[in-house]
Amino acid sequence: MSSYTPAGRLGDPNLQVINDPRLDARLVNLLKSFGMDKNEPGTQVTIDSPMEDITAMVARTEDLGAALYAGLPNELPGDDKEPKVDHSEVIIPGPDGNDIALHVFRTAGTSGETLPCVIYSHGGGMVNNSMINKPHVRWLTDLALAGVVAIGIDFRNAYTQAGHNPFPAGLNDCAAGVQYIAAHKADWGIDKIILQGESGGCNLAFATALKANKEGWIGSIDGVYGVVPYISNAYGWPRERLLRELPSCIENDGYFLSLKSMAVFGHYYTPDEKDKTNPLAWPYHATADDVKGLPPHYLLMDELDPLRDEGNSYYRKLGAAGVPVTAHVNLGTLHGSALLFRQALPEFHAAVVDSIAAFARRLPAHVGTHSRL
């Protein structure tokens, strides 16, 4: 009788992502063309390195990420024939004397209709990336074409050229944006609000809901749709603990994301020791009481993602606390595939966008606050 071999790098520590038999075949050539067919080795910088070294590493990652996002092919035949989507920018005051840009995407000709609103927070580990780049604009455009008003909150990243904005700066910007939009629903022709984000943006969507729950304005939020949650800050944990709690961190380490780099990003976002397990910074650590009374959630994870199991764990935590929650895991996909690989996986991209819009449409708009039974 043959012995069982665990999946991924649990079964073969030397396995490269390109040779993992679970990987969707349509991604193979794309990964090769971008030099992503080898496992991400991570950084030599650690959380114990001087902050100037950490900042330099984060800055390099910002530049590399911007180049990747600009170069990834995401156009499809027929894009030039799709209905027009209007994009406008609204500047609102932030909580620290800063300005926050809200990027509003709405299908042209729908200004007289009342539509659900999906408020989007972008990925990048709460540290890197920008709202207005090719994949994000395409994502917001497709959400608008699916029948919602899509609004991207251009929150402060922890890293900017102007300086370091650690937790809770980005979260406070997201909360301010949601509260502003909620106060202007009638003006903007929207009837309910759904928070949506991927990776670090999913962290901010979850954390905004937790913050609203704690502060008593959760009734402003009708639902949360989280994609590939980056929520644990577990990336420097001992191997034994990861195997016990979050085995996908070992199983898929280096598949587009590396634990070494994520540990440094986590430290840059939450340099203060007391915040490293703060649920508002890292929702994985939320208690049953923290999540009780939250609105319906939908979670989506990718099979070959180091972060898969923290999403699975949060799903179970929500369900155990009585929060209405649904989840699914996409087979054969890497972290963030729905957003990043639209051209290679067009049906998958469309299915996720449609799922978000359908989730938004079927939720009832709440009046008052959600119950904390």
From TrEMBL:
A GO term for molecular function: hydrolase activity
Domain Alpha/beta hydrolase fold-3: 118-337
SUPFAM superfamilies according to UniProt: alpha/beta-Hydrolases
Gene3D superfamilies: alpha/beta hydrolase (3.40.50.1820)
A Pfam family per the record: Abhydrolase_3
UniProt xrefs under PANTHER family: AB HYDROLASE SUPERFAMILY PROTEIN C4A8.06C, ALPHA_BETA HYDROLASE FOLD-3 DOMAIN-CONTAINING PROTEIN-RELATED
Designated name of the protein: Alpha/beta hydrolase fold-3 domain-containing protein
Organism of this sequence: Oleoguttula mirabilis
